[in-house]
Amino acid sequence: MKHRILGLFLTVFTIDILHAQEKISVFDETVVVKDNLEPVIPRPLQENIADKKLASLESRTGTKPNILIFLVDDLG
């Protein structure tokens, strides 16, 4: 009886560990690029559009644009 309880406990514990490594939700589209970076949601269509617009701007002006992104969250 003790062996059955121990076997059941180990089975449940192993399943919990394996489940933790899987995606939490089917709606989670994030991709981990590197372990030390936050997960990202890839948007290849938006990246292609932005690349085309930047290339167009560079061809018109002759130089690459200076772009500064200033993102602030929760300053209060």
The helix-and-strand class reads mainly alpha
Tally of contiguous helical segments: 2
Describe the largest sheet: none
Radius of gyration, rounded? 24 Å
What layout of secondary structure does this protein have?
Blueprint: H1 2-21, H2 44-61
Protein described:
The protein has 76 residues and is mostly helical. The chain has 2 helices and no strands. The longest helix is centred in the N-terminal third of the chain and has 20 residues. The chain is elongated and about 80 Å long. The protein starts with a helix and ends in a 15-residue tail after the last helix.
Distinctive features:
elongated, 76 residues, mainly alpha, single chain, 2 helices
Structure at a glance:
This protein is mainly alpha-helical. It contains 2 helices and no strands. The protein has helices spanning 2-21, 44-61.
